Each structure stands twice: as C-alpha cells, then as structure tokens.
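hey team, just a heads up i'm posting the complex here instead of the shared drive bc the drive is being weird again. everything in one block, sequence lines first with there labels, then the predicted structure for the whole assembly after. its two chains so it's a bit long, scroll down
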Amino acid sequence: MFQRMHVEDWAMSLPFISFLIFAVLFAIVSWRALRLSEAKRNHLASLPLDPTPETPNQP
Amino acid sequence: MTTSITYDDNSVRRFMIASIAWGIIGMLVGVLIATQLSFWQMNGHYLEWLTGGAIKADGISFLTFGRLRPLHTNAVIFAFVGNMMFAGIYYSTQRLCKVRTASDLLSAIHFWGWQLIIVAAAITLPMGFTRGKEYAELIWPINIAVVVIWVIFAINFFWTLAKRNEPSLYVALWFYIATIITVAMLYIVNHLSIPTSWTHSYPIFGGVQDGLVQWWYGHNAVAFFLTTPILGIMYYYLPKAANRPVYSYRLSIIHFWSLVFIYIWAGPHHLLNTDLPRWLQMLGMTFSLMLWAPSWGGMLNGLLTLRGAWDTLRTDPVIKFFAAGVTFYGMATFEGPLLAIRSVNAISHYTDWTVGHVHSGTLGWNGMMAAGMFYWLAPRLWKTQLWSKPLANMHFWIAMVGILLYVVALWCAGITQGLMLGQLAEGGTTLKYEFLETLGDIQIFFIARSIGGALYLAGFGLLAFNIWKTARSGQPYDETVEVTVLERKHKDRMPWSESLFSDPLAHIFLAMAFVILWFFLPHHADKAALLVAVLLSIKAYYAFKSSADQWVNWHERMIENYLPFTVLVFIAVAIGGSVQIIPTVLVNREKNIEGRLQEIYTPLELAGRDIYVSEGCYNCHSQMIRTLVPDVMRYGRAGVVDDYSHLGESLFDHPYQWGSKRTGPDLAREGGPIAKKDTQGTLYKFMRVGKRGNDWHFNHFLNPRAPSPGSNMPAFPWLFENATDVKALPGKIATQVQLGVPWPALNQHEISDMVETQAQEIAQSLVAAKVYLPSKPDLQGDALRNHLAKSQVVAVIAYLQKLGAYHEVKKAHPGQPSALDPDTHRSKPAAP
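-- predicted structure starts here --
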C-alpha cells in the first residue's frame, strides 16, 4: 500500500455516498412495488401463462 | 384487430443444440484439467501411452493446465451458458411480447457469429494467445467480434420489444434488459487495450487499477451473465412448468432492483486483504453481505412458486431440475457473501474453496436450470413427448451426486489448505508446513472432485442423448398463435423528457447531487449543500402530496416503457462502476507513490513476462503477498519490515498478475538483486538472482518434480526449443510508453543489445552450472549457451528473477491537496 495517500479521506466518503444512493432508490422502488395494484400484479404475473389474446388497446 | 403470428423457434432450437454441444466440450475440458491437478502426466504425457510411444513429450504446450483452464472457463460461460441464455431469451421474449423476433437475419447473424467466436476462442486459447485476465482472455480481434455480435443481439431484442403486442414488460424481460446493458458496459471497459500485433495487446489499465477493473468485470460476469439472465429464465419457465404464476410479483420487482443496485458494487471482494485501498475492500464486503437478502428473496420466490405443485417433484423431471437449480442458487448466494467477509476470505482466498463455490453456482444453478429448460423446451420445439423421463430422472440423480461430490471435496480441500498454510510450528515463530505438503494433503479431494465432475459430465451426456432422441421422434415445430395487435399509441408512451426529468426523478437526483456536494464542498459551502438537499427533500414530499397520481403513474408507466427503463438501469449500474473505478484511476499514478515503486523491466524481462502470461501461469501462481501474517511469513523476506505486496510494486504491470488461485506458491518475491560477479570476476549488467538460482528454474521448467518432489506443475519442454520474439519488443515497449510506463528512450538496436547481453549472462550462468538439455544432448559449451540465450526459457527466468524488484521513493514535501480535494478545509498548513 501507499505509505501516504493524499486523497484517501476523499475516497473514504464514497461508501457513504453509495449507501445513500442505494438506500434512496431502493426505498422508492420497493415502496412502489409494494403499492402496485392487485389487478396490475395479477396481470403481470399471469403473462407467462396466458396464451389467449388480451384486450390491450385500452386507454 | 387480431393477427396470426408464427414464432421463430428455429433460432431457439439452434441455440439449444449449440449449448448442449459446447457444454459437453467445455465440461470435458474441465474434467481433463481437474485430473491434471492430480496427475501431471495429463498435461500431454498421456499421449505417449495412447499412441504407443509415437508421440514423446513430458508435456504438450496446447494441453497444459495454464492454457486449457481459460478454454474451460470461456467455453462453459460464453458457449454453454451463453447459448442456453440466448435460447431461453429468444423463446420467452417472443411469447411475453406476443410478437415474432424482429429480424430473422439478425437472429441468424447472432447465432453464427457467436459460434464463430467460440471456435476462434477454442483455437487461439490453446495456442497461448491470451490477454492474461480471467474470463477476459480472448484476444482483441475476438473482443471486437463479441461486441459487434452482442450489439446485434441487443438491436434484435430491443426491436422486438418495440414491436410487441403486450403493453407491460414482464419481470423476466427486465432481467434480460439488465443483462444486455450491463454486460456490454462491463465487457467494453475491461477489454480496453492497445494492440501490439494481431494476436497481442496490453490492457490500458495496470496494477491495482487493472485488478479492480478486472474483478468489477469478473464478479459481474457472474452476476449479469450467469445470474440475471437465468433469473429471467426462472421467472418465465418456472411458472410455465408449474402452471401457476410466480409466488409474489412484488417480491420479483424488489429482487430485480436490489440486484441491479447492489451487485455492481461487490466486485472488490475478490481483492480482500490485498493492497487495494481499504475503503474499496470495505465497499465490496458490505455490498456483498447486502446481497444475502435479495438473493434469498429470489430463491424463496422461485421455490414458493411451486406451492401446491410439490407432488410433481416426484414425477416431473423439469420441476425436479428447476427446484434443485433454484436451491443451488440460494446455497451459492449464501456462500458468496460468506466468502466476502474479510476474515473468512483470509482462509478461503487463493484456495479451492472458491473454486468449489463457483461450481456450486455453475453446475448447480446454471447447469440444473439449463437442463430443466431444455427438457421443457425440447418437446415443444419438436412437437412431441420427451423421449425418456426415466433417463432424465437418472440424469438428475447422477448430476446431483456429481455436484455434491465436487463441491464437498473442494470445500474440504480449500479449508484444509487454507488452515494448513497459516498453521505455525511449535514455538510460534515459523510456519509448520511447506506449500507442497499442503498440496499433497488435499490430493484425495482433488481426485474426488475429478470423479464428481466426470459424473456431472456423464449426466449431461444422458441429456444430450435424450434430447437427440426426442428431436428424432418429432418434427421441428414453430408455434403459431393469434394475438391482438397493440396499436402504437398504446405502448411506449412516455417521452424522454418525462422519463428523465419528471418531478419525482428531478427531485431525487437533485437532492442526491446536493448530498454528494455536502461531502465534497469546502467548509460552510458543505452545510449550504446539505441545507439545499433537505429543502429539496421537503419539496419532494409536498410535490408528492399535491400530485400523488402523477408519481404513481410515472412509476407504473416506466415499467411499460422499455427505453426509459433501460436508461435508468444503465444509470444505476454505471454509477456503481464509476464510484469504484474513477477514484483509483486518479490515485493509481506514479506521482502519488511514496515508498516502494516497481523497477521497470528490461526488454528481455518484458518478453519473459509475455511468455509467462501466454502460458497462463497466473492460473496457478499469484503475485500478491496479502496483508496477512501467514502470507508475509511464507512469501516475504526475513528481516524486511512490512514485506507484503505494496501497491506501487505492480504499478506498471499491464495486465496485473495478482492471480486468484494458488495451486503453486506465490511468486511476488521470487526475484532478487542484480548478481555480483561471475566466475571470472566480471560484473553482471542485468542478470538477477532471487530466491533460487537460474539452474533451479531451468531444471524446474524441464521437470518440476526433480527440484520439487510432489509438484503437480506441468513440464514446459517447448520453452527450451522456441525462440524469444525479440523483433516484437520495440513495438511492445512503444505501446507500454503510450500506457504511461516510464521506459527510457530505446531504439531497436539498443533493445536488441540489451536482450542479447542479459540473455548471454543468464545462459552463461546455466552452462557454468552444467545444465543438461535432454532434447539436444550434444550441445555443450558455447553452442549450448548460444542456443539457450535465444530460447524462451531464459526470457522467463529473467522475468522470474525480476519479480519483487522495487526502489524506495521518498518525498521531502508531501503533495498538496488539489483544488477539488474535499479535505482542503481540514488540512493543516504545510510545515515550512
């Protein structure tokens, strides 16, 4: 390792930033996932199983 | 309006057949190299027995472990899993989008291009053409071909999404999108090189920087090539096979986003206890531990999808393979974070424990999921029944026994060797075991591992036979369905501006930007930035209160709009990579080094290094003495303080050669100072002598077991016959200068003279030590010296005797913080 690293402290802050970014974005998508409507969830979950034509052209 | 669509299942069949064929070849090479660790004769000497003596060699260059191991890893990753992934993606994407793949031509180019790449790899790797970086060995022309074919695949995939007749994007498609975007980014960055010839290049990164980029890529090759696409396949095929929807769609969303946000950060856990800056090691370890949660969430989501269908586990081989595959996913992703804990890693790293862990993932997760998918697909692709369920069941049990034997054997081998290497003798001042003693003690586990691998391969042979008989019993069949055509105005309706600059995103990113500024700005300005971040958060709250619908719609429309979704995934993974890589790009420079700084190689040493890389020595030997007492005691020099590998000692190494596995000992301190005088009292100009003499290395390359009884290293007889490529050196040195390696100005004549002088010095020392060349018994004296001076073995010896050479750099005045240094306001005034 370096005996002295001039920017070591600067770099030390990066894990904190990374935590922050992760925590904020993950909290948002998790919250949105949990709030997904049941109808939407069921529709999405059944996509692999549903071979019949749907009625997708709704506004 | 409805329309009739015929899916392109021909591409699926082709990729599936290719996957099975390459899988068998890749696994066969794997079994061969596993036996090489127990029986050195498997490095080519066995051909002497097979041909009744027609071929005579202690080793054959293109059959050694160092050259075949990259072939094995590339074959199983890119050929076996790659083709399996493409088969799974092409089949499921068409069904989930209710549309035929956008372009048959692009599908065909993708298929044949990928197979050509694999063939090129299978030819070049055994020839020793390599970049010397694990899973990134392929030479630069093949790298370009990989990028072109990957882009063609991406165009075809996204074009298909654009033409889809289903507005929503199922979660499997999210995983495919993340795979395509992230693999492209990882592959391009880690393969940035400057060519020196059609078959050779130097990576633009060096030393710790190269190590970091390599494992950012290497780890995420596992994450985004071996995991996310297979998770997409799990989310599509498991519900299909069980005939019920995924257990929790909400959990699948959280699974996806948490993997995208976390996985990309975890690469540094491959460099724990090395001279990688500590904050990066902690970053890698912490994010690895965080992976436990989403991985197990995903595993449970997969297994619970089988709720109410567990009875089919007894009768349906597809469900059996999927359930085992998902379980192995859980086991491997439990073990991974465990191994990323620094104290555990101190034992496991560089041992077979890691190899066992990787194979529980590849054989258990990838292999079992591939088998389940193939057994499910084959009857549908040939419109028939699976030829034999009992045979598939037999495959399952043979594979299961094989995996367990393999993984448990390597757990035992790795933990045993890791503990033995650190064990102290009575008195506590010396190590108890020589390296070769530890290798001897784990041989029984190596043999068990070879048997386990052979069983797994046998099982896969049964699959190939079963699929072949299934195909023969039916006819190639392309499914045709009626679908409702989705009008253009009902899909991908989110404009770019809204997707990237909508209120929610704008608030989130602005607030984050000010929090980052809080870290970086000088005194008082940082508090202002924090205040702005808080105000933005408050504004975001009120914006949400006043227009909750807009926020909700934004998110839900986002998952129905593939381009904005793709951009957001790219931003997430790009941030993860940038935060790790950019700071080390800035600090990993000569001007920052204080303490040990690597000595520049001589031209002959550079030639020797290229041969070392070409032979794949890094597959078995590390060049990294970790900051651990047993490492320093074993590989450091007596009486030298802090004799672990310092960061500056490999600063100019393109590529870095820290390695990831020690089948042989570490070589970081193998070299030594320039030798004093020869027998005539002449001072040596270049020749160095390290831990061992030149004649020891000579005899070791000729027959490793002569100086090291019990060694499993292959013999390298061709190094004594092949000449060093001196003509290429001026171009290579010029390229290194471009990369920032501070070579002195040398013309080609000076380079040739330096090579000749150093080679003659080493060759003379070998002749003086009365070495014997079995292939040329008549050569003696000057004739032998001149022959050896031109040979590759002398170049490699020159390189090995240079390893660990450095000089001390002392700085009278430490560098001042730069303008962007966030610590400016904390620094004390420099002493006058």
